[in-house]
Specification:
A hairpin with a 5-residue loop joins strand 1 and strand 2. This protein is mostly helical and 203 residues long. Helix 1 runs antiparallel to helix 6, helix 1 packs parallel to helix 8 and helix 2 crosses helix 5. It has 2 domains: 129 residues, Four Helix Bundle (Hemerythrin (Met), subunit A), CATH 1.20.120; 66 residues, Nonspecific Lipid-transfer Protein, Chain A, CATH 3.30.1050. The protein is built from 11 helices and 3 strands. Strands 2-1-3 form a 3-stranded mixed beta sheet. It comes from Terrabacter carboxydivorans. Pfam families: MDMPI_N (PF11716).
Length: 203
């Protein structure tokens, strides 16, 4: 494992641990509160994040075949199924050592960090708990979200604008400048928020 990969893996471990600790301290009703993911409550988001702990690769493949190779359909079905578990079971899955080694197909450690941070924001932003990932972690996520594969996956169009983080020395693109906190830019790049130059602070 390279030094860079090890650093990102450490950030994944930190994100999962911190999110688990936050969730453990929330009232039980919060698990049934809506998230930023349409149709998913907090429990469905955590269930989706911990899919590798609930279904083996053969089970996932079978589910994908049944979903006619539509990953979004499979992900929704599995999230709703696995969300039936108790909060304690979902937290145990989030803290499982095997979660630290999981990476999305073709995504590597950075893909795992993007997955953890973005879905963490799906929860914390919806609950308005005020938690934002550390700057070093968010910078890695922003770099991961701006590779062509990621932009295509999330269907984000950024032509004619430059995103600039207000709290990091980070920017992407060219054109009209849209400034926002780094975590907000992560939400824009993952399709959770709209990048509206007219409504944003511009210079």
């Amino acid at each position: 494992m390279s030094a860079v990969t090890a650093e990102v893996a450490d950030q994944v471990a930190g994100e999962l641990s911190e999110l688990a600790d936050l969730l453990a301290g929330l009232p039980a009703a919060a698990w049934d509160a809506p998230s930023l993911c349409p149709g998913w409550r907090v429990r469905e988001v955590v269930a989706h994040m911990t899919l590798p702990m609930h279904a083996s690769p053969p089970v996932v493949l079978l589910g994908l075949l049944r979903a006619r190779m539509r990953w979004d359909v499979l992900a929704d079905r599995r999230a709703r199924l696995d969300a039936r578990r108790t909060p304690e079971q979902l937290l145990a899955a989030l803290r499982a050592p095997r979660m630290l080694a999981w990476t999305p197909p073709g995504g590597g450690a950075t893909g795992a960090l993007v997955h953890a941070v973005v879905h963490g924001l799906d929860i914390t932003e919806a609950l308005a708990v005020g938690r934002r990932p550390p700057a070093a972690r968010t910078r890695i996520v922003l770099d991961g979200l701006t590779v062509p594969r990621s932009l295509t996956h999330f269907g984000v169009a950024l032509q004619g604008m430059q995103l600039q983080a207000e709290d990091l020395d980070w920017s992407y693109g060219s054109g009209r400048v849209v400034r926002a906190p780094a975590a907000e830019l992560a939400l824009i790049l993952s399709g959770r928020r709209l990048a509206d130059p007219e409504a944003s602070k511009a210079v």
